[in-house]
Amino acid sequence: MGLYQRYIFPKLMAAGMRQEAMRRHRNRIPPLAGQRVLEIGIATGENIPFYSDKVEQLFGLEPTQALLDKAEERAVEAPFPVALIAASAEDIPLESNSIDTVVSTWTLCSIPQLERAMQEMRRVLKPGGRLLFMEHGRAPDPKMARWQDRLTPVSRTLFGCRMNRTMDSLIDEAGFDILTLDKVYFEAPRLLAYHYIGQATPR
Question: What is the strand order of the sheet 176-185 is part of?
Answer without folding.
Answer: 82-85, 55-61, 35-40, 99-105, 125-136, 194-202, 176-185
